Queue: 2 jobs
Job 1
Amino acid sequence: MTTEGMEGKAVKRLLSGTFVVLIMALAPASAMAQAFPVKPVRLVVAFAPGGATDTFSRVMAAEMSKSLGQQVLVENRPGAGTTIAAEFIAKSPPDGYTLLFTDLSTHAITPSIYPKLPYHPLRDFASVAPVSSSPMIMVAHPSVNVKSAKELIALAKKHPGITCGNAGIGTVTHMASEKFRMRAGIDLTPVNYKGGATSTISLLTGEIALIVTTIPAALEYVRAKRLVAIGLTAEKRSALLPEIPALGETVKGVEAAVIAGVLAPAATPRNVIDRLNAEFARAVDSSRAKEIFAVNAAEAMKASPQAMQHALEQDVKTWAEVVKATGVKLQ
């Protein structure tokens, strides 16, 4: 045999061996994606129990537990404007078994509020699926004696510094009120609480004048005439709540929404992401989800992981501009 022939056979053996190694290296990831899930999945919620986002997460968990063949468990990790839960997910194994269920608007806001986040809001996460979108509501204590956005603006111009509570600095409820303040050309004093429930209680007792909160947190009190609905943080009225005006009817450019959605750690296998996306899409179409969304004036959302990622990237830029314009800073 010639030297060239021997070298040719050696190269073939080398290439063959390399190919086998590559196959073996890729097989576990492929097998994991195909078998997923083989154990319970955790939905880590960035808010305390009882709120709209938490409620939606539990509906999704119940529906997906049926279709996945594994339990989907909800775990609440509230605090620090959702950054506690987000950091936990960013540092979790990228295997699809630990997911962040959060408000995507707040997730997009936090990098502009918290200058030293221990994670990057885009690079350290993989978009999985949006779930729902809902405007928020601005409500006032009856003693403030205003019944519309127009009356509130007139009062605030006469008496600057009216207090307005929110669910925490950097949350979408906080930034929605700041957006309204800026667009209306008035001065409101933000009061930052650790959760929407606390701000609602303070409003009911008359400690503050206004709050921006989720619709479920305030609607029963509006209907009982214990609070006054000033308007939804939307351009136009909701078909689900036609009796409540939109702030956009009086002030343009004040739209803001709570967008419930799911993120996974970066580097989670694409096949796993796609499977989860399909399961969430199936869950939001369930009769139970539709019922809960209707009660909370929320609309179901479905989108591919790629489309969701693009929207999140745009939201980070948009909210950065709002934060800069309003001058909001972490105290």
Note: The chain has two domains: 37-133+258-326, 135-249.
Job 2
Amino acid sequence: MGKPDLHRHVEVSDNHGAVASADVTITQQSVRTARASLRAAAGHLAPGSRARLVDAVLDLPELHNGGRLEAAFPLGDSETLHRLLQRCTDVTTRPAGSTVLLEATIGPGPAFGRAADGDELGSYAVFQ
């Protein structure tokens, strides 16, 4: 019998509370697959909030050795798509109603929480 899947809830917050979150299920098979549902709070968000969520998901310790990603996020969320294109390879997308379904290979990338100049980008929390 195989190992059970891991479930994580990731939240990105700013000074006013949680602004974006994701529910992630990670398979424990030989090729790890992360299935993530990404969403952001309604209304105006500071630039980079959605990109920080992508980083928080891809920087989960269980994904440090790479694997596959299957993600769902709102159609029109260009910031999320752009960051996924930066952090992943072999990316394919397709619309499904008001949602984008993305499949990709998780690639190497910078650790979450630091911009190129070393400044803090924000905070996130992971819940099991």
Note: Strands lie at 6-14, 17-26, 33-40, 67-74, 88-96, 99-106, 123-127.
